[in-house]
Amino acid sequence: MVKENYKIIPLPKAQWEGTIIPIGYTTYTYYDVTVEKNADGYGIKIEKKTLDEPITHTPEEYDFPDKLYAPHWEKAFAWGIVDEGKETPELMACIETCPEEWSNRLMVTELWVHESLRRQGIGHALMALAKEQARLERRRAVILETQSCNVNAIGFYEKEGFQVIGLDTCCYSNTDVEQKEVRLDLGYFLPRAHNLSREAVVIRPEESADYRGAEEMILGAFWNKYRPGCNEHFIVHKLRESDAYLPQLSRIAVVDGEIAGGIYYSKALLENDTATKEILLFGPLCVAPKWQGRGIGRMLLEETLELARKAGYEGVVITGEPDYYPRLGFKTCDQFGITTADGKNFDAFMGIELVPGGLSDFGGRFIEPEVFENISEKENERYTQSFDAPPVQKFPGQWQE
User: Which residues of 242-277 are buried (b: 16+ CB within 10 A; e: fewer)?
Assistant: First the structure.
């Protein structure tokens, strides 16, 4: 656990770009790397050995020292601990990440803790941010590079769940093996999820005894996802008291007795120059992190859309993830001739017709229930204090500050 006086904060590029990270270490052991050709192919051996003389590396010896927001990491994002007690704020610890988009992996490009702060859980807390970013972005792995002589770092990464995934015997020079400084690539693999069978999931109406557990699930699903913290759990709390809420369409998903997901419907309107039409809005649709990627969201959506269709509703409009909902049949609202109340359109503003022409034959402006417009941030903060919520944190890709 990181002490409260060591607060990890985002390090904005505009302020910290080019900041040199004084990475240095002395080691008395190393991993000896040998690559041998044999009759059957190649043999690779990585063996821990003791040095005759210790190896020391300092930032001053490198022509290209480690620094934050190097130009080749175009989508980098950094967090750190800053000592604000000096005339010029001093960096005391940091982690920087950058997505490797083509492989859907997240790379840790920098990780450093000042020697005065080591062995206090700060490295673990920094790495937890990278793992959480990878989870939020649905990356398949977190990867990083270190050197075969940086034994302490390798030991730390192994404790964090990393394993060797590759090596490069000529990354830094043509004599890396002889200099006992071979690049090692390490990877941490996020848990793989497999779809649950429909029989394994109980989908049912929410009962009053479920309220607190459902809100805990909602908070966990949205925390730090679209903004630092979240308010979706509070929205559901307020929605249940609203005349717009439709409990007869809303459902929760239960797996092994645990609330694993939920979808909450309310009435909304389309308004054009001559008339109004009642349609549906759902939000949130969510699944607890533990159960994400296992088909629960799709089950909830398909079952409740059929309920809505049978109840006579002709369309649904939402604001949701542009990378997710189109796979389930949603289209951007401009394709239905629908705009927001103030005449706008954007990728996350989507809809689905429950009957042909249910949205497109009417078009108009989308009017959401007042309950969604009157969410007080102060009330949300007070309500959230009753939950065991993780720290509020900025992540790249969040929609709101």
Answer: bebbbeebbbbbbbeeebbbbbbbbbbbbeeeeeeb
For the domain spanning 198-384, the CATH number is 3.40.630.30
Read off the pLDDT of residues 181-232 as tens digits, 9 standing for 90 and up.
999 999 999 988 899 999 999 999 999 999 999 999 999 999 999 999 999 9
Tell which residue, 134, 180, 141, 151, has the closest CA to residue 33. Answer: 180
- pLDDT tens track for 147-180: 999 999 999 999 999 999 999 999 999 999 999 9
Question: Using omega within 30 degrees of 0 as the cis cutoff, is the peptide bond preceding 326 cis?
Answer: no
Sketch the domain layout of the chain as residue ranges.
Answer: 9-189, 198-384
Neighbours of 94 (CB within 10 A): 23
Q: Which CATH number fits domain 9-189: 3.90.1150.10, 3.90.230.10, 3.40.630.30, 1.10.150.20?
A: 3.40.630.30
The angle, 0 to 180 degrees and rounded to 10, between the axes of the packed helices 377-384 and 232-239 is: 100
E-state strands within 77-140: 77-83, 90-100, 105-113
Q: What pTM was estimated for this model as a whole?
A: 0.89
